Amino acid sequence: MVLHTLPHIIVETGPNPTATIIWLHGLGADGHDFEPIVPQLGLPADLAVRFIFPHAPSMPVTLNGGYIMPAWYDIKQTDLGIEHDRDGINTSTADIQMLIEQEQMRGISSDRIILAGFSQGAAMSLHVGLAQSQPLAGIMALSGYLLLPDQIDRFKTAALSTPILMAHGINDPVVPFALGDSSRRKLLAAGCAIEWHSYPMQHSVCPEEIRQIGKWITTILSTS
Questions:
Q1: Which one is catalytic: 74, 92, 172, 183?
Q2: Which of 59, 110, 183, 193 sees the fewest Cβ atoms within 10 Å?
Q3: How far from 139 is each of 46, 84, 105, 168, 180, CA to CA, in Å?
């Protein structure tokens, strides 16, 4: 069976990968955005990982005057805490789920797959990762937030045990720090295990954060 997945970039850190990280970019970017980060993570030489960097489909984004750009869903409100485009979210959910299933068909079990993302990609990684019937190895949400008012209700009980790394810039003007922090608190209240880091930056990543991501990935994939 061949799955027709989103177009994506593949970077493998060694032959015969035993784990996969699916990394979702933010609004207006593409799969190349986080590709250069792989060698900066400092992963062990004997840890062979397949990184998948998918390209989101292009669509009109209401908040940006209807300008067509890569996006996982439309954003209609400046207040990101308000409900977004459910149809777009559902379509992207199916697309991301297909990437997970592709890796499972390649022989990578759920507990060796990490779903990661930045901004919109982080929101989708939480949305998809916590709705899995079998827990993933981990979920990484960088400068992200919970998407929907009823978000917690759709999470699977089994998936709530998935280790989650959340990180956010305290000066973020795009996804306010308070929104990321409130999302963290809601997830904690739901029973999630979260490692949380904040950094003196805006809507971006920084070298200290990249080092911490590498340590977290190494720990997760060495114990899963």
A1: 172
A2: 193
A3: 22, 21, 20, 15, 15
